Amino acid sequence: MSDHITEIVIFTFLFLLVSGIGFFAARWRAPQDMAHLDEWGLGGRSFGGWITWFLVGGDLYTAYTFVAVPALMFGAGAAGFFAVPYTIIIYPMFFLILIRLWSVSHRHGFVTPADFVRTRFGSPTLALLIAITGIVATMPYIALQLVGIESVLKTMGVTGDSLVARHLPIIIAFAILAAYTYQSGLRAPALIAFVKDTLIYIVILVTILYLPFKLGGWGHIFAAADAKFKATPAPGDGILLNGNNQLQYVTLALGSALALFLYPHSITGVLASKNRNVIKRNMSALPAYSLLLGLIALLGFMAIAAGVKPLPGNKPGSLDSNTVVPLLFDHKFPSWFAGIAFAAIGIGALVPAAIMSIAAANLFTRNIYKEYFKRDATNADEARVSKIASLVVKLGAVAFIVFLDPQFSIDLQLIGGVIILQTAPSVALGLYTRWMHRGGLIAGWAAGMALAFWMLWKIPNAATGRAHFGGSAFPLKNFGFDTPKTVYVGFVAVAVNLIVAVVATFILRATKTPEGVDGTTADDYFADEGDPRVGHTRTIVETVSST
Amino acid sequence: MAERESPEAAPAARSDRSRWNWLLLIPIVLPVLTPIYNHPSPRLFGFPAFYWLQLSFLLVGVATTVLVYRMTRR
Question: Does the ipTM surpass 0.95?
Answer without folding.
Answer: no
